[in-house]
Amino acid sequence: MSRPFALCLLTCLALQACSQSLPDRLGAPIEGYSHTSAAINYFMVNGNGGPNISPYGGGGKQNCCVSMPRQWHPGLTVVVEWEKDPNTGDSVNWPKPRYSDAWRKAAREHQSKYTRHRAVGEVAPYEELGVIDVHFLPCNQVAVSAVAVTPGQAGYPFNYPSKMEEPAVCPAP
Question: Residue 137's beta-bridge partner residues?
Answer without folding.
Answer: 141
